[in-house]
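Structure tokens please, single chain.
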Amino acid sequence: MLHIYGQRSWHQEAFIVGNRAALKQLQLAIGEALENGEMRETFFPSDEEGYDVYIACVDDAFDFETLDLPYHDEELFNKPKPPLKAFTLYGSK
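Here you go.
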């Protein structure tokens, strides 16, 4: 099981909480993205409702300004769009 909690706003913490198997699965998925540029992996939180994590390894020259900021407090920010510009394989999703 893996829970990922993103930042609500600036300077706030982000958390990743998982059992050993899920953290190992995440580690391998990050390794695949480092090797191949992108990776998609399915994880499950404690309610067992699966979700996909998309991982992109972009070039140092990638313009992060083209992506919405990842904050998700809708009282402070507009709802962010997925960072599809960072993906080639999964960008059309």
